[in-house]
Amino acid sequence: MAYISNALEQQKVAKQFDSVGMMEMAIFHTRKAIKIMEQLHKLRGENYPEYQVLLAPFYYKIGDLLVLYIESNMNEMNQLKPLELPEDPEEVEEGDDAQSKEEEKVPEGSEQNEAASEKNEEAEPVIEDVIDSA
Fold this sequence. Notes:
Structural class: mainly alpha
Largest sheet: none
Low-confidence stretches: 106-113, 124-134
Strand content: under 5%
Mean pLDDT: 76
CATH class of the domain at 1-74: Mainly Alpha
Distance between the termini: 68 Å
Number of strands: 0
């Protein structure tokens, strides 16, 4: 019950942001609610498959918010303003832990580390200045 009440609290906050037109914050809090419900489903899903039904309203709401965001942030040229969500402190901590664990797994001088760094170098686009000669 704690998972559901926490998810509903996040959804209430999202609804308040939605009512004042702050779509980014509404999407952010709805995503947090979805993460809580997904944790509940992951924890209890094997024993209680009907818990999957609890995810549906949250997925519906995030879809609705994303459609509203797209409709309200599309310009005449059909270009969409990038969706910029605030950073979640919980995600940042988890991301740092996962990154440090990956670094620990790959020793410094290994072939895998060299291959990974070469891929990163190839994946980064090269930005060149273009000078108009006209």
